[in-house]
Amino acid sequence: MRRQFLMVIEEETDRLAALVNDFLDLSRLESGRFELKKRPLDLSRVGESF
Questions:
Q1: Residue 7 or 36, more confident
Q2: Tell me: the pLDDT tens digits for 19-40?
């Protein structure tokens, strides 16, 4: 039971961190300080989010 709670906490923490990062990116974009960087993309992970 504790393991399940810890897994949920970990997943929700990751989601919250992603949301905060999205807000920071939006803030940078609106202020004109947003920079695009090239980096590898794992398409299999992109498909997992759908």
A1: 7
A2: 999 999 999 999 988 888 899 9
Q: How many CB atoms lie within 10 A of CB 1?
A: 5
Residue 6 DSSP code: H
Radius of gyration of the chain (CA): 15
Outline where DSSP puts E strands in the chain: none
CA distance 9 to 17: 12
d(CA 7, CA 24): 26
What distance lies between CA 30 and its chain's CA centroid?
19
CA dist., res. 46 & res. 7, Å (int): 21
Query: For residue 16, what pLDDT is reported?
Result: 97
